[in-house]
Design goal:
The protein is an alpha+beta fold. It folds into two domains: about 100 residues, Type I PLP-dependent aspartate aminotransferase-like (Major domain) (Aspartate Aminotransferase, domain 2, 3-Layer(aba) Sandwich); about 100 residues, Aspartate Aminotransferase, domain 1, CATH 3.90.1150.110. It contains ten helices and seven strands. The strands form two sheets. Strands 4-5-7-6 form a four-stranded antiparallel sheet. Strands 1-2-3 form a three-stranded mixed sheet.
């Protein structure tokens, strides 16, 4: 319709959905929107793209030239560090390595059985007798941009204390070195290993091993 009446079409994709993810609800990717004839597509450099916090605008040269020469461009342009980080992230996509090198994509694609195995290893590090640890079903909320409510099944490490309230147990976790950030669900403090990279598991186990709440 925009092309028929000579009206530029702008689409805000929000989350930076560069490649389709089987784990997430179907939605347009940046490429599919451009191929459909959209003149300008806006999306985030972070969120589902997994790069630095930034706004990205792609589209037809004529439209982008008007953006480049607008007076506001000087006020909102990104700095060189942001460009460098975004460039490095996009290179991983171009080389086909994003599923194993971009953290947010790795987390989305993590398999539930592997998450459970890692959660059980972390749970074994908790040795204090006042804390009960179990592995339970749960969900990981993707969040961000156009997928704020999208959820993935996961396995959670759930903790309860016989001596302190859940909020105090959560606070004790945050005081560890490094701090461990959990959430409280149904009276339990839970950790989702989907949000922890595998190479951080040993660090997490050491921190949980020092828990004395």
């Amino acid at each position: 319709v925009g092309q028929r009446f000579g009206v530029p079409v702008v689409e805000d994709l929000g989350s930076g959905y560069l490649i389709s993810q089987d784990e997430l609800p179907a939605e347009p990717t940046v490429r599919s929107s451009i191929e459909a004839g959209v003149d300008v597509v806006c999306f985030s450099g972070d969120k589902l793209l997994g790069g630095p916090q930034a706004g990205v605008i792609v589209g037809r040269d004529q439209m982008l030239q008007r953006v480049r020469t607008h007076p506001l461009m000087r006020a909102v342009r990104a700095d060189k560090l942001t460009y460098a980080a975004l460039n490095a992230t996009l290179q991983e996509y171009a080389l086909g390595r994003a599923p194993v090198t971009v953290p947010v994509i790795r987390m989305i694609k993590a398999q539930e059985d592997e998450i459970e195995r890692r959660a059980r290893t972390a749970a074994a590090a908790v040795t204090t007798s006042t804390i009960k640890v179990q592995i339970i079903d749960g969900v990981s909320t993707i969040g961000g941009g156009s997928a704020p409510g999208s959820e993935l099944s996961t396995r959670l490490l759930a903790m309860t204390s016989s001596t302190i309230q859940p909020k105090d147990l959560a606070a004790a976790l945050r005081r560890l070195t490094p701090p461990v950030i959990g959430r409280i669900e149904r009276g339990q403090v839970v950790l989702d290993l989907r949000t922890v990279l595998p190479e951080q598991d040993e660090m997490l186990a050491r921190a949980l091993g020092s828990l004395t709440a």
